[in-house]
């Protein structure tokens, strides 16, 4: 058994010809060429993700519209948007401020947290 020097893959003496082509893939595991990264090809992964998301969301919207009609769809959509906005506001602004407020009112909790983190990391 020999080792392929660049990647360290074991090569069996019985593997010859086109069968060893998979051993010559670059170390990151993806073959790329400059031709693939020109023009629209560089946006291909993003386009695929957006297309999949459009398919998923459009099917949900069409289902809700077919079940509830236009007014029910509008109510459902804007109630969801308002709920998402409220949840995002809470996550981005309220919860971090609560943590700061708790540490301001009870500073010994911050010191306790620092001691616990030092123990976990093994610092002295």
Task: Characterize this entry briefly.
By secondary structure, this protein is mainly alpha-helical.
What do you see in this structure?
- By secondary structure, this protein is mainly alpha-helical.
- It has two domains: 1-31, no CATH class; 32-121, no CATH class.
- The protein has two helices and two strands; from the N terminus they run ββαα.
- A two-stranded antiparallel sheet has the order 1-2.
- Helix 1 (44-105) packs across helix 2 (107-121).
- The radius of gyration is 28 Å and the shape is flat.
Spell out the key features of this protein.
single chain, 124 residues, mainly alpha, 2 domains, two-stranded antiparallel sheet, 2 helices, flat
Strand residues, percent: under 5%
Mean pLDDT: 77
Number of strands: 2
Shape: flat
How is the biggest beta sheet arranged? Answer: 2 strands, antiparallel
Number of domains: 2
- The proportion of residues forming helix, as a percent range, comes to 55-70%
Strand order of the largest sheet: 1-2
Radius of gyration, whole Å: 28 Å
CA distance, first residue to last residue? 49 Å
Structural class: mainly alpha
Helix-strand sequence? EEHH
| Count, helices | 2
Provide the low-confidence segments as ranges: none
Strand and helix map with partners:
Layout (H helix, E strand, L loop, with lengths): L1 E2 L6 E2 L32 H62 L1 H15 L3
Antiparallel strand pairs: 1-2
């Amino acid at each position: 058994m020999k080792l392929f020097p660049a990647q360290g893959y074991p090569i069996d003496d019985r593997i010859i010809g086109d069968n060893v082509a998979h051993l010559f893939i670059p170390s990151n595991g993806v073959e790329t060429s400059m031709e693939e990264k020109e023009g629209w090809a560089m946006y291909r992964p993003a386009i695929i993700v957006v297309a999949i998301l459009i398919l998923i969301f459009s099917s949900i919207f069409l289902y809700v519209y077919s079940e509830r009609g236009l007014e029910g769809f509008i109510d459902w959509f804007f109630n969801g948007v308002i709920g998402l906005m409220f949840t995002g506001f809470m996550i981005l602004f309220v919860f971090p401020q609560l943590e700061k407020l708790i540490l301001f009112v009870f500073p010994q909790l911050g010191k306790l947290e620092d001691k616990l983190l030092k123990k976990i990391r093994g610092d002295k």
